[in-house]
């Protein structure tokens, strides 16, 4: 009886796994097709200075329309694109979009930085730093307005090579931010060797403020940033309570639905044209 039961469990497990794999392969095929047909979009979420509430930058975020005005979350398809190797080409396209966006912003007198997320496989391509430099030169974008967001997973993958690549890019003038900081369980020692200018505090440490101890972690990251001479930016700020507290803790910048959601390129242009910092 028990053997029978185990069999059934194993059988069910296998078919679940197969189903999941088939679903993933289908998604990857569709993603590749939609990317080739230029159906992907890049949206932009404003980043503000806590003190002045001026918009100082924006983050480029991939959007994959699935029809009827709906979108498949990058949280789902970016990991798939990474595994399938697709993220290298998609990531290059996002960088080019970001360059075009930066130029459009500069053209209306709103020169703010545009941050781009970079995945592990992109760093593995030979001469990644050179390809970024070439792209910026081709688009004639001032490197100081382009920021690369790397996660701890990128850093820990091959710290020596990554440090070298990031240093080369930083020397060129590109900014570097550590994304989702504190979620990667990596040793803090890499902070001493890594070239970066901003720490992004993950939403995980923001979302339960003030109802849990996560505020203590946010405060720790802010003070770490201050001691290292780096800026800190809080991600995913949704309430005034969170915002007030983070500001009081000395956080430099903020990005979150409370201030602005990610929006298409044209909407960002309108947003910036009409935007007036309110008194905090
Ligand atoms: P991330 O880089 O940490 O991006 C921040 C995420 O937080 C975005 O989710 C953004 O929409 C969301 N967010 C910002 N403020 C709030 C808020 O107040 N409340 C809530 N609930 N969420 C907020 P999104 O756009 O779904 O992207 C998810 C992740 O997908 C990104 O996390 C990033 O890891 C990845 N991703 C997105 N675009 C790209 C890309 O072009 N390349 C790569 N490699 N990864 C990307
Ligand atoms: Mg990011
Ligand atoms: Mg993040
Ligand atoms: Mg995140």
Helical fraction: 40-55%
Low-confidence stretches: none
Strand content: 15-25%
The assigned structural class equals: alpha/beta
* β-strand number: 10
Q: Which ligands does the model contain, each kind named once? A: ligand C2E, magnesium ion
How far the N terminus sits from the C terminus, by CA atoms, comes to: 68 Å
Largest sheet: spatial strand order: 1-2-4-5-6-7-8-9
Order of helices and strands: HEEEHHEHHEHHEHEHEHEEH
Query: Major sheet: size, sense and barrel closure?
Result: 8 strands, mixed, barrel
Q: Total helix count?
A: 11
Over the alpha carbons, how many angstroms does the gyration radius reach?
20 Å
- Estimate the global geometry from the Cα principal axes: globular
Overall pLDDT score? 91
Protein name: Diguanylate phosphodiesterase
Domain EAL: 24-276
Layout of secondary structure:
Layout: H1 2-36, E1 41-49, E2 55-67, E3 70-72, H2 74-83, H3 87-107, E4 113-117, H4 120-124, H5 128-139, E5 146-151, H6 152-157, H7 159-172, E6 175-181, H8 190-193, E7 198-201, H9 214-228, E8 231-235, H10 240-249, E9 253-255, E10 263-264, H11 265-274
Parallel strand pairs: 2-4, 4-5, 5-6, 6-7, 7-8, 8-9
Antiparallel strand pairs: 1-2, 1-9, 1-10, 2-3
Helix pairs in contact: 3-5, 5-7
The protein binds ligand C2E and magnesium ion (3 copies).
One magnesium ion binds at residues 180, 202.
């Amino acid at each position: 009886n028990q053997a029978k039961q185990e069999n059934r469990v194993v059988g069910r497990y296998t078919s679940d796994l197969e189903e999941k794999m088939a679903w993933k392969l289908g998604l990857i095929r569709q993603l590749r097709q939609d990317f080739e047909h230029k159906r992907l979009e890049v949206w932009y979420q404003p980043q503000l200075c806590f003190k002045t509430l001026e918009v100082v930058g924006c983050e480029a975020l991939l959007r994959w329309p699935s029809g009827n005005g709906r979108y498949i979350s990058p949280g789902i398809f970016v990991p798939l694109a990474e595994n399938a190797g697709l993220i290298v080409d998609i990531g290059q396209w996002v960088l080019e979009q970001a360059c075009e966006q930066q130029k459009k912003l500069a053209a209306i007198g709103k020169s703010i930085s545009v941050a781009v997320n970079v995945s592990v496989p992109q760093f593995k391509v030979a001469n990644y730093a050179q390809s970024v430099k070439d792209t910026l030169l081709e688009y004639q974008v001032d490197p100081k307005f382009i920021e690369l967001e790397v996660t701890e997973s990128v850093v820990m993958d091959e710290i020596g090579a990554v440090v070298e690549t990031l240093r080369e890019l930083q020397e060129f003038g590109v900014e570097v931010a550590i994304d989702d900081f504190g979620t990667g369980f990596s040793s803090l020692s890499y902070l001493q060797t890594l070239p970066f200018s901003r720490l992004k505090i993950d939403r995980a440490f923001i979302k339960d403020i003030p109802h849990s101890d996560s505020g203590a972690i946010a405060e720790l990251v802010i003070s770490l940033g201050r001691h290292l001479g780096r800026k800190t930016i809080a991600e995913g700020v949704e309430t005034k309570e969170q915002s007030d507290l983070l500001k009081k803790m000395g956080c430099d910048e903020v990005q979150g639905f409370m201030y602005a959601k990610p929006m298409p390129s044209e909407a960002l242009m309108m947003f910036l044209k009409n935007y007036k910092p309110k008194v905090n």
